[in-house]
Amino acid sequence: MDQCVCSAIPWASVVHGLTPSPDAMASACPVPNNQLPARTITRVRILGRKTIGCGALHEVVGELVPPPAKVQLKWPNDLMVGGAKMAGILLEGTGDAVVLGIGVNLAQAPELPDRETIAMAQFGPAPDRDTFAERLAAQWKADLERWRTYGLAPLVNRWEAAAHPKGTRLAAEIAGEGRIAGTFDGLTEEGAARLRLDNGEVRAIHAGELSYA
Length: 213
What we know:
Elements: E1 5-10, E2 23-28, H1 41-64, E3 71-74, E4 78-81, E5 84-94, E6 97-104, H2 129-150, H3 153-162, E7 169-174, E8 178-187, E9 193-197, E10 202-205, E11 210-212
Antiparallel strand pairs: 1-2, 2-6, 3-4, 4-5, 5-6, 7-8, 7-11, 8-9, 9-10
Helix pairs in contact: 1-2, 1-3
């Protein structure tokens, strides 16, 4: 069975729009290689856990940000509130494990020239770091068990319900091809983003970042 180890640590520097002083969440979740075809191991591990991690983060933050503010996911790894970034996820494969790092703006958000950011403290008292980390770890554990029991499909459906709606104009930078643009068409069963181009072609985006076009 997969193992999951979670810990809360303070950020030491600004990384991808996250503040230097709130929290990071790290998880190491080994997957036995004999459970998946060799050619799909890395893709399924990364995309699957990214989908789970984003969904868990959305669940926890969504409970703490009151309406009318709307917490929304942006593929592949951002959590947005009113168009501003509040949190993000980084993943790295190592051996037979995937390390998942989650950073959340709890008490403050950095001022960045290329994006708007926001902190949870703008909606009330900033959550206690350790309490927030424990809640996120519990949600991650529950969602990981749901994946083991029912597969990724229910979690993909949840991600789509929490994300920018289908039809949203997005663009992606593709290695060797440059920038392509189209409309968001949901996720694949593995958690990759589907981008419907203006010519009707649907492209699966497995890596990189989508931006609003």
